[in-house]
Amino acid sequence: MRFEVEPSPAGGYHVRMVGTQAPLSHHDTAEEAEIRRQAYERGAGERARGDLVDLPDGSEVIVRPVRPEDKPLFAAGWERFGEESRYRRFMGYKTALTPRELESFTELDHVDHEAIGALEPQTGEGLGVARYMRHADRPHAAEAAVSVIDAVQGLGLGGILLTRLTDRAAQNGVRCFTATLLTSNRSMLRLFEKLGEVTVTAVRGFEKEIVVELPLSDSPTLELMLRSAATGHVSRRP
């Protein structure tokens, strides 16, 4: 991947990945844009670091938390995300990701907003992501979503990402996920049903809202992890 800094028609400067139309980020000065361009360059060489995980078909992926330097992965992955997949994920037709959306997707606090991504080990290309965003008025609940590029759908990656996300949610005090799905999106509903009890709270036309109770007994709580760390009995997942 190569990146370039260019003036923005609206003022300021964009960082763009060569070969894509939409800019990755917008900055007030050329110096700020250059710093971010260099960060994207460094990130491109470090993307394959994370946990190596086996998929049910025997292939492998790298799984790790999303970072600010991953904006190019989201921009490139968007091109491998089919129109129908985009429609199911965003509940409508969408042609591109804006710099503000890329910022929202990648610049996280990893407590109230967490995202776990999967990468192809050899190329470092993005394959999928699962994220939650805590509800401000219900801190025990968070909205969750999963996206996987078309080429690896049906291989079990969505379930792996959602399970990792559930572990992080439990550590951060989240006890249930909420989600809005198309009523026709049975595959996503099945993923949530594997986590815990699913309750449909509303149906509006072609959309349904659900709540998923997370299984506390199967997920490490923050208190338990701190106790384990204090005694030296912490196990890393592969």
In short, what is this structure?
This protein has 7 helices and 11 strands.
Summary tags:
disordered C terminus, three-stranded antiparallel sheet, 238 residues, Aminopeptidase, alpha+beta, eight-stranded mixed sheet
Could you explain how this protein is built, in words?
With 238 residues, the chain is α+β, with helices and mostly antiparallel strands. The chain has a domain at 47-66 and 108-231: Aminopeptidase, CATH 3.40.630. Helix content is 31%, strand content 30%. It is built from 7 helices and 11 strands. The longest helix has 15 residues, at 30-44. The protein is globular, with a radius of gyration of 19 Å.
General form: globular
| CATH homologous superfamily identity of the domain at 47-66 and 108-231 | Gcn5-related N-acetyltransferase (GNAT)
The CATH architecture designation of the domain at 47-66 and 108-231 is 3-Layer(aba) Sandwich
Summarize the biggest pleated sheet. 8 strands, mixed
Per CATH, the class of the domain at 47-66 and 108-231 reads: Alpha Beta
Low-pLDDT regions: 217-238
The CATH topology of the domain at 47-66 and 108-231 corresponds to Aminopeptidase
Mean pLDDT: 84
- In percent, how much strand structure appears in the residues? 25-35%
Task: Give the terminus-to-terminus CA distance.
Answer: 28 Å
Main sheet: which strands, in order across? 4-5-6-7-8-9-11-10
Output the number of helix runs. 7
What is the CA-based Rg, rounded? 19 Å
Total strand segments: 11
Along the chain, the helix and strand elements come as EEEHEEHHHEEEHEHEEH
Structural class, please? alpha+beta
Helicity level, as a percent range? Answer: 25-40%
